[in-house]
Request: fold
Amino acid sequence: MAKRAPKKIIQVPIEAELLARIDETVGRVAESRAAFVRDACRSRLDALEGGQLERQYVEGYRRKPEGTAWAKTTARLLSGVLHREKW
Reply:
């Protein structure tokens, strides 16, 4: 059996209305409040990281835009692959 990472107990002030919504939701999805909050924190961190990666991707293309030759090559390669995909 995998060993669980030790957890730290924290205190976070939260508005009564938000806490009520969380409690209603955890009742419907059958998980603990703590598990719900941990998952919400992970989701927020993932979203922030994803946004940062997207910004880096866009900035890279702004610094070095895709040339016409590369775009044509990509289109030609994809046209040979996409028609085999099951949509």
Observations:
- Residues 16-82 form one domain.
- The chain has three helices and no strands.
- The longest helix spans residues 33-63.
- The radius of gyration is 23 Å.
